[in-house]
């Protein structure tokens, strides 16, 4: 008899336990905390089981409910930003990019892996994009995609491009499609007549497959939470009498999936870059994008276990992730796998947008304002920093200190290619090309939420928005937010309501001395509770003026370096750049691969005591378009600085900031710009006291 030792990393008592063994999947009931048992041909040693949880009837409520797609729309500069995306790469992929224009999801020949995520990624992103800018072309494209997939559902319930082929059937690639389909039903409820029966038919098949150990592979095992969220949407809104099957499928996904409650334990969580570490769990749990998606696993689990420990572990995991791998831009480092704190290591674009979405979900389930604060930082810093201003070219990896964007020699990324930080059509891997467009639309859609009793509307993400929804007792409410935020501290909000209700607005943790004026009355200090300031709004029209100033703050970084912040924005030295076209798409000349090289000195140390904030609001009241490019945002911070000796590795990236720098030139003044507008930059500076 061949023997295989399998380690059990998580369990539910009194329900089947999944034992992960190389090459096989075995189900065995476990009653004791430690035992030997023979299962098939495997000798199994069961250790250290996770504390038991008991699934309860029904789903636990979330702290806040998202509004259906289309009820929150961008206005002002944020609407323009989404127009830039629509006019850029995202809005044109359907015309020339074969993974979209010829996707096998709609009968074409094109796909990039058997995971079958290319078409579904694009669909998930562009559903919201098309609605939020009222783009009839995009809406027609996604409607065709939806119709084709539903029209070609297999008789056994399977959905996707594998129907009628010999391709392997893995569950994961369907999950982005489900998210897109859900958004379409939210926007147009008449689509539920087709979408909901198709999803239930698929769930019946998937439940059988999972019980039989089918449709599961490493990516499905780590991204199971996305399917759980789909099942919970069905349970909440369209259960169709299938509640027991939906709950059982949720439990089976959890049981067959990677054990995120253990991954996020402090004793196991990696505190450095992981390329030289051994993962005690499945390898892909330390993958950057899987980590971003896995952040949703425990809050989604909580909804069917009602177990507070799930929420506690989710919150702990979030904190550990940013403590040991976080960036001043709000995101964390993972150049394929978790990459620690060094400023030269990379962050993948896919994980940027997935962390934004996961953070929104965490906030809606748990209600802790730390999630919303970080999502806002990521959105206004890390997301725009990794795309050109016109959003036609994107990176695979961005760097905190990025002195060149080119084919790297030597390569600073242990597990990604040297082309990864080029701005282009599909540097390194194509996934971010089809997945990145979800970032801005989902941020906008989650900017407002409501309380579960429908009594209160909550403004979560600050910026220019217009919102129309109906609260309890048929209370029709309209909210218009006029602001240049985050390029201004002031938000003017006009609320029109049929009946009185409580309006709440998030006050970010970085605000100092914030005030609010109601209907022209004297401004009063904001008084947030758990991050939210409440206003009793009467029937009719109410006008609010929020002023949310912030101090300049300094963040300590490795090697005695510092990063500079004010409010939601991180500030960096914007290195002037030269540009070289490396490649151009034959069908779409705007789709280019760009090399950027520094054209000025960047080796500076700064004196943190010298920092001064400057704001030059546009006289027209309108920001330039696009705003996220060199020199265009109206805000800046100046610093006294001097040139220092700072080594370059090869010709392409900066070594670690010198921890004890010395001036090699006279004192000078440099200007720091919002991180999101920089394409080459220094965001983590050596520091010293500089005497003019």
From TrEMBL:
Q: Which InterPro entries match?
A: Beta-AFase-like_GH127_middle
Superkingdom field:
Eukaryota
Q: Where in the numbering of this chain does the Non-reducing end beta-L-arabinofuranosidase-like GH127 middle domain appear?
A: 465-536
* Any Pfam family matching the protein: Glyco_hydro127M
The record's listing under PANTHER family reads: PROLINE-TRNA LIGASE (DUF1680) (PTHR31151:SF0)
Q: What is this protein called?
A: Non-reducing end beta-L-arabinofuranosidase-like GH127 middle domain-containing protein
Q: What is the lineage of its organism?
A: Eukaryota, Fungi, Dikarya, Basidiomycota, Agaricomycotina
């Amino acid at each position: 008899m061949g023997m295989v030792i399998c380690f059990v990393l998580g369990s539910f008592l009194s329900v089947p336990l999944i034992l992960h063994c190389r090459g096989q999947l075995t189900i065995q009931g476990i009653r004791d905390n430690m035992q030997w048992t023979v299962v098939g041909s495997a000798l199994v040693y069961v250790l250290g089981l996770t504390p038991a949880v008991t699934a309860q009837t029904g789903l636990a409520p979330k702290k806040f409910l998202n509004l259906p797609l289309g009820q929150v729309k961008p206005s002002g500069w944020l609407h323009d930003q989404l127009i830039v995306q629509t006019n850029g790469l995202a809005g044109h992929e359907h015309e020339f990019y074969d993974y979209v224009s010829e996707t096998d999801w709609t009968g074409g020949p094109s796909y990039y892996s058997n995971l079958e995520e290319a078409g579904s990624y694009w669909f998930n992103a562009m559903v919201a994009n098309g609605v939020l800018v009222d783009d009839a072309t995009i809406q027609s494209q996604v409607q065709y995609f939806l119709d084709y997939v539903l029209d070609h559902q297999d008789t056994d319930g399977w959905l996707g491009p594998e129907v009628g082929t010999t391709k392997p059937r893995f569950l994961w690639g369907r999950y982005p499609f489900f998210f897109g389909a859900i958004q379409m039903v939210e926007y147009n409820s008449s689509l539920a007549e087709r979408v909901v029966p198709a999803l239930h038919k698929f769930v019946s098949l998937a439940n059988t497959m999972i019980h039989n150990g089918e449709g599961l592979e490493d990516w499905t095992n780590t991204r199971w939470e996305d399917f759980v969220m789909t099942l919970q949407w069905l349970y909440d809104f369209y259960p169709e009498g299938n509640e027991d099957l939906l709950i059982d499928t949720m439990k089976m996904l959890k049981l067959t999936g990677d054990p995120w409650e253990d991954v996020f334990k402090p004793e196991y969580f990696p505190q450095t870059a992981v390329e030289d570490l051994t993962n005690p769990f499945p390898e892909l749990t330390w993958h950057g994008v899987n980590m971003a998606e896995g952040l949703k696993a425990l809050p989604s689990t909580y909804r069917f276990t009602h177990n507070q420990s799930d929420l506690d572990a989710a919150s702990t995991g979030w904190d550990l992730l940013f403590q040991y791998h976080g960036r001043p831009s709000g995101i964390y480092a993972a150049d394929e796998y978790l990459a620690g704190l060094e400023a030269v290591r990379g962050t993948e674009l896919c994980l940027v947008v997935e962390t934004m979405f996961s953070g929104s979900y965490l906030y809606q389930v748990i209600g802790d304002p730390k999630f919303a604060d970080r999502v806002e930082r990521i959105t206004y810093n890390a997301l725009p920093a990794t795309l050109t201003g016109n959003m036609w070219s994107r990176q695979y990896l961005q760097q905190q200190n990025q002195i060149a964007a080119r084919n790297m020699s030597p390569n600073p990324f242990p597990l990604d290619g040297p082309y990864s930080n080029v701005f282009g059509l599909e540097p390194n891997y194509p996934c971010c090309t089809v997945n990145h467009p979800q970032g801005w639309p989902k941020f906008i859609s989650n900017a407002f939420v409501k309380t579960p009793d429908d009594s209160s509307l909550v403004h979560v993400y600050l910026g220019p928005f217009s919102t129309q929804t109906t609260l309890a007792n048929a209370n029709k409410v309209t909210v218009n937010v006029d602001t240049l935020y985050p390029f201004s501290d002031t938000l003017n909000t006009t609320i029109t309501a049929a009946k009185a209700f409580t309006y709440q607005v998030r006050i970010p943790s970085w605000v100092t001395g914030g005030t609010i004026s109601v209907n022209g009355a004297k401004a009063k200090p904001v008084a947030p509770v758990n991050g939210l300031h409440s206003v009793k709004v009467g029937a009719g029209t109410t006008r609010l003026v929020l002023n949310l100033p912030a101090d300049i703050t300094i963040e300590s970084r490795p090697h005695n370096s510092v990063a500079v912040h004010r409010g939601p924005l991180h500030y960096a030295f914007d290195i002037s750049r030269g540009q070289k076209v490396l490649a151009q798409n034959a069908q779409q000349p705007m789709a280019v691969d760009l090399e950027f090289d520094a054209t000025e000195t960047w080796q500076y140390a700064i004196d943190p005591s010298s920092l001064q904030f400057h704001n030059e609001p546009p006289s027209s009241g309108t920001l330039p378009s696009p705003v996220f490019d060199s020199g265009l945002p109206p805000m800046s911070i100046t610093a006294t600085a001097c040139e220092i000796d700072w080594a370059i590795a090869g010709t392409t990236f900066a070594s670690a900031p010198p921890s004890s720098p010395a001036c090699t030139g006279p004192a000078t003044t440099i200007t720091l710009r919002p991180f999101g507008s920089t394409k080459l930059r220094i965001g983590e500076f050596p520091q010293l006291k500089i005497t003019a």
